[in-house]
Structures are given as C-alpha cells and as structure tokens.
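Lecture 7, part B: from sequences to assemblies.

Below are the input chains for today's worked example.
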Amino acid sequence: MPSMTPTARTEFPLAGTLAAAASAFAIGLRRNFANWPVLMGRALFYLVAMTVLSSLWDKVSSARLAGTLASSLPAGGLTLYIGVTEWIALGVAAIHLRLEDDIRFGMLEPHLLRPKSYLVQKIAECLGDTLGRMIGIGAAALIALGLSGRALPPPQAFLFAVILGIFAAAIGVLLYTVVGLCAFWVRRVLPPYLLMQKAMFLLGGIFAPISLYPAWLYRFAMATPFAPSLFVAGDQMIAPSAASFAQALLLQAAWIAILSGLIALVWRAGLRKVLREGV
Amino acid sequence: MDALTAYAANVAAAIRASLMDRTNFALNAAGMVVNDLFFLTLWYMFFAGFKRIGGWGLHDVALLLGILMCIVALSGIAFGGYRDMAASILRGEIDALLTQPKSVLARLLARESIATAWGDLVIGIWMLCTFAALSWRDIPLVTIGILCGTAVYVASSVIYASLAFWFAGARSFARELTDFMLLFSSYPGSIYTGMTRIVAYTLLPAGFVVLAPVSFLRSPSVATLAVMLASALGYTALAAVLFHLGLARYRRGLVPTG
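Predicted structure of the full complex, as structure tokens:
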C-alpha cells in the first residue's frame, strides 16, 4: 500500500491490519487465478454436479406424483435455485484444512511472533480465494445457463443472488473457520466439518429450498446461520424481491458480526490452551 | 505375501495409533454417527415429501447407503492414508519413504487409520441389518460387493490425489473430487441417464463404487459379478499406473510444492 507510510501504520494499528488483510485477500484471489487449471477443473465439476442435480429434480418434477410436494415445486423446477446454492457451496475455500494443518503440525507458533494477526490474515486470504473460485464457477454457470435454453428470472434476480451469494460465502468461510479452530481440541477436524457440512445441507437448503420444509423446521433453519449462508441467495431465483433482498442482507450482516465475535472467543481460548499445554 | 504381511502390520500399527487417544477416538466415531444420521434425515425428509424417484424408494436408498457407509468405513480403517495423500505428496513426505524397501503407495495408504470410519461402520452395518431386508445367505454377496466397491473407491481417490504430482492446488481439489464421488454414490441410480450415466461410470465412478454392488445384490448373476470384478481391477490398475508416473516426476524434482 504505497499511500500508507510506516508512521501511519504505527499510529493507526487498525489501518495497518486492514492493509495487511487486503494484501492477503489479493494474494488469495490471485493465487486462485494462477492455479487456473484447478479453477477450470472446479468449474467443470460444478457443471457436472449441476447436470446430476438438475436431472434429479427434473425427474421429481416430471413425475408430479399425486399427494406429494412435487405439486408445490416452481414451474421452472429447482435447477436455478440449486445452481446458486452449489455455486456458493463449491466456492467456499477449505480454510478448516489450512487451520488444521497449521495447528496440528505446530506451524502456528512462528506466526504468533509476527506483528499481524495470523487469523485475520488467514481469513482474508481465504475470502480472496473464495471470491476467485466464485468468479470462475459463476462464469461457467452463466455460460451453461445461456446454452441450456431454460427460462430465466428477471435480471434483478441475478444481481440480488450475486450480492447475497458473496456474503453467503463469507458466512461459509467463517463457519468453516470455527471448524478449523476445533483443531486446538481435536486431532482431526473431519467430524466437526462433516457436522457443519450436513447442517448446512439440511438447514441451509442446498438440495431443496427450506420453504418446502414443515413450518417449524423452516423457522428453526432461518434462526441459524445456515439459511443465510445458502437459502437466502438461492431463493432470489424462485421469488426475487427487493424487500426480501434487503431483509436477507441484514440477516447476513448480523450473522457475520456474531460469527466474527465467536471466532475471536474460540481463537483466544485455543491460543491459551496451546501456550499452556502445547498441541 | 511378504508385502501383504508388511501392509497388515502397518495398518495394525495405524489402528493402534488411532485408538491411543481414547477421547479423541470416541469423539470422532460419535461425530460420524451423528453425521450419518443427519444424512439419513435428509433423505428421509426427501422421501417423506416426494415418495419415489424413478422407481427408487426409501428402502432402496437405505440399502445403497448401508453399502456405501461400509465401503467408506473399510477404506478409512484399512487404507486411511488415501484421504490426505495429495497433501502428503505436496508436503514432500514421500522423501522419507523413497529410501525404504516397501512400495511407496502401500506405505502412504497404510500410514493412517481414520477414527471416524468406525462410526460409518456401525451405522452401515445397522442399516444393512435393519432396512435392507438381507438374509444370512446374502453375507458372502454383500462382502464381495463391499470389497469390490472399496477397491474402486480407494483407487479413484488415489487417482485424484495423484493430481498433486502435476498441480500445486490439487490438495483440496482431490478431496473435493473424493467427496463428490461419495455424494454421487449416495444418489438413487435411476437419476443417471445419458451423459450423467457416463460420468457416473467413469470420472466419478459412483456406478462402480455402489450401484454395481446394489445391482449385484438385487439380482446376483455372473454378468453383474464380472462387472464388479472388472471395475475393481481396472480402477486399481489405473491408480497404480498414474501414481507411479507421478512418482517418477517426483523423483526428478518436477513436483510443485503446496
């Protein structure tokens, strides 16, 4: 950051932290594009996954079995909804694996001596990585959608879905950060990761909108961070509206604040444990 | 024979290591049980809402999931190194194994036994015993199906991990491919038609991991047995060839670091 002098950084430590985080974010973003064969592989994989999931829902929609929820499905099916939820789910970078590695193999300690917060740097880097993935996968999704000939929702639905999708992915990164920090207490973070992933699938509505759930389960899911991390963005493809967009954005902002606070607490507790007992 | 004995000794040591921290072991296994129950709930809710999909009902999916969980369990317990293999390659952990007399691939696979796999094993056996309507006479067929499915699953994971010999970012990509193979394997076979059927029997071989064993159990015949055995041998051979091609690159110092 050429405009930020060393003096300014000393006087305003927050500005220095933010500048370092912005650099980490840019590194994460650029690294993704540098590894373009992997990014292309992810995009291709998204398309393959979408082909399978859309054929699942097309099969359900076409059967329209009497007395089932098939009659409540939107006319165009759920392909666009799932397209958005999968775009978010595949876009979220695996921060939990990086944290697990650093904590398990004792690579965390050298970072603690450095002036910038290890965790902020890691999260910023993963957010950049996530954005890079979302750009690559999103481009592939739009091209495939254009070629598919499916009926499209109004243009503002895409705008709402993209904005909510980016914040949804940020919530996903924060949720997986909590999972990664579990490495302070458990040797492998696979069990908490699987629990978080399945809770996200179930309560976030990755395969089907949670609005199809019974009312009590819908209300419960909306009270967790999982619905804002998937459903609210995908829902704009089914029922786009400025009011629901604004409401969802507020909900996401609230969960980002809550999860950031939780991460800070877990990080401090984990750090205390490492400094006291080692790994 | 000597190689098999060495492999068994390595796996036994890995299992003992996973059991060393009892609390951690219990937490991992119990975590997986809860995860599997979550997954079953997801499918239960789906079938509660939509009843059938292409002729598959809840009990058919329960048989599929029971076999799949046993396959994942066996892979995690006896070949647990497959899960982090791409990371091991990128971290240069192969260096220490190159000087040893036994196969590098076997050592990598046997270096870890995953505690969570025991949770899968419990739920998988429970599902096969309760939902799948199998009799005692089916035990040999189930065993063959699970062994062949395990061979395809582990071999495919090795193929994905071998990408690390070529791409620095392959660590999480290899894991994602393995996870998606698992995800594809947990869908009713009736949804795969046309292009998706080709993918399910090639790139993400869910068809050979679990659909072929399910079909073999539903209608045992020489043809279905031959398909299972051929796929197990084919994918294992492909994994061995790709891994050793990558290892040759590694020996020449051409592998990126992650």
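Note for the exam: Chain A is about 75% helix and 0% strand. Keep this in mind when comparing with the next example.
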